[in-house]
Amino acid sequence: MKISVLGTTQDQWSNALLSRIPKDAKKRTLILVGAQKQLITPLARIIGYRIFWIGDSNKHNSIVSTLLKLTSSITTNILVPNQKAEAKYLRMKINSKKISLTYPDTLLIQPNNSHSDSLIIACDGSISIEHGLGTTIKAIALAEEILGNIKLIIGGSIIERVGVEWLLQELNIKKISQFIPSTTHTWCEPCDLYIALDKSDNNLPLSLAQAMSFGKAIIATEKLELHEFIQNDKNGILLKDANADELSQTIINLARKPEQMQEFGNNNYKFAKEKFSEEVIQEKIKYIFN
To answer: Which residues are registered as beta bridge partners of 123?
Structure first.
């Protein structure tokens, strides 16, 4: 039987997971996405559907949270794409046996570990200037003055392109910068170093997982949800309340230690192979839906 889907979400991780759901199942199956659609679970059960939710980390008021907790008892399973989303449902006191942590899969490319003359840095344009991209660009400009070999890629869903272009021009690094607008996340493949400095409460860019799958070194903001993926000084560097000077010095130090950058990248690839590979994810999804 064909699996039906109702609802949408703005969560990149949840959308990527949704795209991997099978088209058919042996039983009449309905996927509900977003709290508004998930609240129709009782009606869908009455008319004979087996119900699955695609979870996300979006916040809800106390009334919606209570209703979701009550209706969750008659769902078959809630698929969540990361621990941040998982924690949301656990805080609602939903039965943990109903929740399946299922990462979206990524494209795996083993790092070649070759050294180039330039340091290519990638940043996700979905992070706003105020929340961290501005600090990152300023830090790259400072590091470029010392290293003189940096290239910058800003990719993904670029939400403030005009402002970013102005800042690049002001800091005299527009010539070394490239925009790669993309609805996929493979745009970061050419980079050596992926930076995700983000002081907001927004979800992590999915390009972080893809950068790990390409075996790239990571510098990111130290916040709880990043500890799921990054161990400081093992597969990346986590910075707390970093300013442009601190981040630029971290970039310079890492650029001068290519062996450490290579080690970070190799460890990220190993992590991604265990967590994000298509074979692992498809096997888990197959198990959940059978």
So the answer is: 154, 195
pLDDT tens, position by position, 29-63: 999 999 999 999 999 999 999 999 999 999 999 99
Task: Could you list the beta-strand ranges (E) of 34-139.
Answer: 50-54, 77-80, 99-101, 119-124
Rounded to whole angstroms, how far apart are CA atoms 32 and 51? 7
Are 43 and 62 within 8 A, CB to CB?
Answer: no
Separation of alpha carbons 83 and 89, rounded Å: 10
Residue 41 makes CB contacts below 8 A (sequence gap 6+) with 32, 51, 53, 71, 72, 74, 75
Contacts of 161 (CB under 8 A, 6+ apart): 125, 179
**Domain 119-275, second-level architecture:** 3-Layer(aba) Sandwich (3.40)
Judge whether 33 and 9 are in contact, CB under 8 Å: yes
What CA–CA distance (Å, rounded) separates 208 from 220?
Answer: 9
Could you tell me how many helices (H) and strands (E) the chain has, helices first? 11, 11
β-strand pairing of 77-80 with 50-54: parallel
Secondary structure (DSSP) of 150-170? EEEEEEES-TTHHHHHHHHHH
d(CA 245, CA 183): 32
With a threshold of 0.85, does the pTM exceed it? Answer: yes
What residue segments make up the domains of the chain, in order of their start? 4-102, 119-275
Give 149-166 pLDDT, tens digit per residue.
999 999 999 999 999 999
Instruction: Give me the helices (H) in 92-160, please.
Output: 134-147
d(CA 26, CA 238): 45
**What is the rounded distance in angstroms from the CA atom of residue 210 to the CA atom of residue 185?**
6
